[in-house]
Amino acid sequence: MQGSVEVRPVKPEEQAVPSPALVVDLDGTLVKTDLLLESVLALIKQRPRCVFSLPAWLLKGKAHLKQQIASRVSLDVSILPYREELLDYLKAQRAQGRTMVLATSCDAQIARQVADHLKLFDLVFASDGCTNLSAKSKRDRLVSEFGEKGFDYAGDSRHDLAVWASARKAIVTNCKVTSRVAKLAPIDRVFDSGSQSLGARLKPLRLQHWLKNLLVFVPLLAAHRPNEIALLGKALLAFLAFGCFASSGYLTNDLLDLASDRRHPRKRYRPFAAGDLSLSYALRMIPLLVGLGCFIGTLVSPIFVAVAWTYLGLSVIYSLCLKRIVLLDVIVLAGLYTLRIIAGSASVAIWPSPWLLAFSTFLFFSLALVKRYSELAVNHVDTRGYECRDEELLASMGIASGYLAILVLALYINTATAHLLYRQYGVLWFLCPLLLYWISHIWLSAHRGKLSDDPVVFATGDRTSRILILLMLAVSMVAL
After folding, report:
1. Are strands 123-127 and 21-24 parallel, antiparallel or unpaired?
2. Cα angle vertex 19, ends 77, 109, to 5°?
3. Domain range holding 264?
4. How far is CA 457 from CA 11, 232, 452, 465, in A?
5. Residue 184 φ/ψ, nearest 5 degrees
6. 100, 224: one domain
7. φ and ψ at residue 444, rounded to 5 degrees
8. Residue 8 is assigned to a structural domain of this protein
9. Where are the alpha helices (H) located in 47-83, listed in sequence order?
10. Is residue 131 part of a domain?
């Protein structure tokens, strides 16, 4: 018949062989983080009292622990640090019609949230409160579902070796286990961000913020005794010890602020928020830094150690809850600055005068307010309880507090104490216009959206600030 088409039967050997299921792990593979640790950190922040129940839950098994934590915390899976290259590969495989499976040791509640968000997976296997789906238990589940060598598996750690042994092909997201995986299954693809350099590991310690710890030298300088080697050595030890405590506080803050940092346009690039460093690294470094700080502190004085612990405790409480209380957060920030001066006093047994404490309180309150103001001015979104319409009020309070610090300085210059300590005390009056210029410059920079970091860190990279600080140091030296 005209127009007819001959249909040739397809031989069995010519029929397309469907690809086996592609099974994907979650922690460290699909996401560059550990969701159990993230859940524990979220529990500490959202429901701190439940932390005391963790040992009891763990006694009933790891799966039970995960289920109890998952039922009490809320993780925003839409902002997790997903491995984008792997995601693109999975989307391409799904477009080819492959069966996609998410198999994870995470609790089923979290696994389903991730699957619902990504809309990539046909099946989800996860821990259910009774069985911890990890290593051999995961392998047994997959073999019972797809058969030996009946699936490809994407994983990242030594716990996945048992699964790879039963997989047809392996997809690896951690080069450190590649050689071991190759002995168990053919490696199809490798997705890895590479090993972290020393600089990357030092970055979350925020060593540039150690500049704030130079405040421990203020009591020694104010007493005009920096030439006493013994006291200078103790102040230097205090600086190093306080740096260790401060870095441990920064790490703690980053761990507790993972969710909020990931929503921030700039902070989402921080190593832990972006998944560039493992959370376990921070959990190892925090006790190490605290221990080192305590050891160095014992070489200074017991009072110094007590002040340093007060600083660390206040920093942790600030990260847990105080930073979300409007105005109290900036008062605490100002207090943390002042505690550095008190720690310096404790290290050399030279106690600060009421003039120094009053000056530092007003000055640091102004700097704390400019930090909050800049967050509103740069991002133009409500943050930490502050609203965009609060910008003008924050600016007025912060500028007034800065100018009050200058007033305290002016009153001090006219006291008998200043006349005794400084031979050319009249020269000190030049500090007032210089400090007035600097505080006004800082606030003007914030108003124009140029101050996007801590004001002290900003000052180190700002040419005008550096010139003014050098001039103020020069004036102080001439007055001596």
Report:
1. unpaired
2. 20
3. 198-351
4. 73, 25, 10, 11
5. -105, -35
6. no
7. -65, -40
8. no
9. 54-59, 62-70
10. yes
pLDDT tens digits, 392-435: 999 999 999 999 999 999 999 999 988 988 988 899 999 999 99
Of 58, 32, 103, 70, the residue nearest 280 (C-alpha): 32
The Cα 115–Cα 77 span in angstroms is: 10
Global confidence as pTM: 0.88
Beta strands (DSSP E) in 281-379 are none
What is the C-alpha to C-alpha distance for residues 273 and 362, in angstroms, rounded to an integer?
A: 33
Residue 258, phi-psi category: left (phi > 0), alpha (psi -120 to 50), beta (remainder):
alpha
> Distance of CA 222 to CAs 115, 214, 381, Å?
61, 13, 41
The mean pLDDT value of the chain amounts to 91
**Which domain-ending residue is among 317, 351, 385?**
351
Alpha helix segments (H runs only) across 147-206? 161-164, 178-182, 198-202
Contact 364, 341 (CB under 8 A): no
Residue 346, exposed/middle/buried by CB under 10 A (0-12, 13-18, 19+)? buried
- Cα gap 270→114, rounded to integer Å: 22
The verdict on residue 1 lying in a domain is no
First to last CA, the chain: 114
427 Cβ neighbours under 8 A, 6+ residues apart = 475, 478, 479
Q: Is 55 exposed, middle or buried (0-12, 13-18, 19+ CB in 10 A)?
A: exposed
Is residue 69 classed as helix, strand or coil in its secondary structure?
Answer: helix
Domain boundary among the residues 306, 330, 351 is at 351
Strands 187-190 and 123-127: unpaired
Mean pLDDT value of segment 246-265: 92
Residue type, 89: Y
Identify the CA nearest to 346 among candidates 291, 302, 299, 295. Answer: 302
